[in-house]
Structure formats: C-alpha cells, structure tokens
Design brief:
This protein is α+β, with helices and mostly antiparallel strands and about 260 residues long. It folds into 3 domains: about 1-25 and about 115-185, no CATH class; about 35-90, no CATH class; about 190-250, no CATH class. It is built from 5 helices and 12 strands. The protein has helices at about 55-75, 105-110, 155-160, 170-185, 220-255; strands at about 1-5, 15, 25, 35-45, 50-55, 85-90, 100, 115-125, 125-130, 145-150, 190-200, 205-220. A 5-stranded mixed beta sheet has the order 2-1-10-8-9, covered by helices on one side. Strands 5-4-6 form a 3-stranded antiparallel beta sheet, with helices on one face. Strands 3-7 form a two-stranded antiparallel sheet. It starts with a strand and ends with a helix. About 10% of the residues are buried. The model has no long low-confidence stretch (mean pLDDT about 90). The structure holds zinc ion (ZN). Zinc ion binds near residues 29, 90 and 93.
Length: about 260
C-alpha cells in the first residue's frame, strides 16, 4: 500500500517525503544522459571555447581529423589541442539520465506490479479504507472521503503468497481482501480472548489463573467467539483432569496411610 495523507501515516509506504520517487532511468539514453546521435565540435579561442559545428559523433570526429591534418601540413600542430567533440545531452532527460513517470508506470516498470487498485479513505467519526478512487458511498459529496493512495502486487508479494502464476482476477481478489483487513484494523475491529479459571474457596477468597489467551483477530467476531469457546472447553477439560488427578492422589494417600 502506497499512501499520501497530510495527517495520517497509512499503508506500508508514503508517496510524499523521501522514501518514494517515480524517477526511472531514461529509456532513450539508458540512463547515461548522452545523445549518442548528436555531438558538437568546439574550438578554443583566446576568449574561450566556441561551438563551431554540430552533427553526428562520427561526422564531428571526421571534421577534427581533417582540420588537424590540414593544420599539421601548415606547420601548426598546436591546433589539435584546440578542438574537441562533446556528445550532446539526451533531449528526453536533458542529460540527467532520469525521467519522472506516473506512479502507475513506475509501479509496473520498477516493482513488477500486475494489478494496481486505487485506495480511498473515509475519515468520519473514525477511519476506514476502501478500494476506489472517488468518494465513499456513504459520503457522496466527498467531504470526508477520497483517494489516498494505491495498493499493488509485486513479484515479492506474489511469491510470498504462492501466487506467481495467478491470474489478474485472483491477484485483485487478494489485494481487495488485504484492504478489507486493513480497514478492519483502522476501524479498531481487533479482538482477542483470555481463558481464566477461577477457584473459589470462600466468598471472600478466590483466585483466578489465566490458562490461555490469543489476540490480534481482525474483523470476524463470530470466528473469535468460536475459537474462544473451543479454548475455554479445552481449558475446562484440562482443569477437570487436574482435579481428578489430585483427588486420586489424595485417595492413594489415604489407602497407603
Ligand atoms: Zn536520456
């Protein structure tokens, strides 16, 4: 998830700041910033270097050879040091070797994204996230909602989930499920349970002991209830076994005494 919000830090990466850029190596010059088809011929005068010709690199180097040859014939060998060919800047990147591309193009080219979905945020008495570039359906005016970023797959995430050969629809389904899960987290729908056993000796004397606990369940409260009940039954069985064993030991003591 790549997001940009002036107040919240959402998702895994922030689109603004220093951790994200959409610069890629210029495809016209392979990132070296040079225009291999065009060069300038410079000649040094008493007042500095002056461009005296332009054309292909070969043509300019040929021109230097001819000028130097003529100069040598005329007994002016110093002329060779007064000429140079300079390769022109790549016109696409102006010599920087990098160009800025759209976020979508960057994610496809540099991160290997196959599916890119827009991410919306609704900020109305709590936060929630959804897949979409427009306003949330409960906020048609778009006062409290709108796009904050994108979610996308990468070669790494596909490999982590065993989805290297998955179709686009399957990848999209996985990304949508991830957004749903993140939305549950944002809405605070995080649940857990603790199984405790309470031993009451007298009304004022009782002790509780934690047997089992599990936290961090997102969203599905029914599932958490089922897991909690299973854990409670398991704990109750263990407690029963323990008390039966204690009873047995006590009986043996009586018998052997
Ligand atoms: Zn370039």
């Amino acid at each position: 998830m790549l997001c940009g919000h002036r107040r919240y830090r959402l998702g895994d990466e922030q689109v603004d700041g220093e951790d994200f850029t959409t610069s890629v190596a210029c495809p016209s010059c392979d990132g070296n910033g040079e225009n291999q088809d065009r060069a300038k011929l410079w000649r040094k005068h008493a007042y500095g270097w002056v461009a005296v010709g332009a054309g292909s690199i070969q043509a300019m180097q040929g021109e230097i050879s001819r000028v130097v040859e003529r100069a040598l014939q005329a007994g002016r060998p110093e002329e060779a040091g007064r000429l140079m060919v300079e390769v022109c800047d790549c016109p696409r990147c102006q010599g920087s070797g990098e160009i800025e591309v759209s976020i979508a193009a960057f994610l496809r080219q540099e991160r290997g994204a196959k599916v890119i979905l827009p991410l919306g945020l609704i900020d109305h008495s709590g936060l929630s996230m959804y897949v979409g570039s427009g306003a949330h359906r409960h906020d048609p005016g778009g006062w409290d909602s709108g796009q904050v970023g994108v979610i996308f797959d990468t070669a790494e995430t596909r490999s982590d989930r065993g989805m290297e050969d998955s179709r686009r629809e399957e990848i999209e389904r996985a990304l949508r499920a991830e957004v749903d899960e993140y939305a549950q987290f944002l809405r605070g729908e995080v649940y857990g349970f603790t199984v405790t056993v309470t031993v009451t000796v007298t009304v004022s004397d009782s002790a509780s002991d934690s047997l089992d606990s599990c936290w961090g369940f997102l969203g599905d409260l029914e599932y958490v209830r089922a897991r909690a009940n299973e854990a409670a039954e398991c704990g109750a069985r263990a407690a029963r076994r323990e008390s039966e064993e204690k009873h047995l030991m006590a009986c043996r003591d009586i018998v052997t005494a």
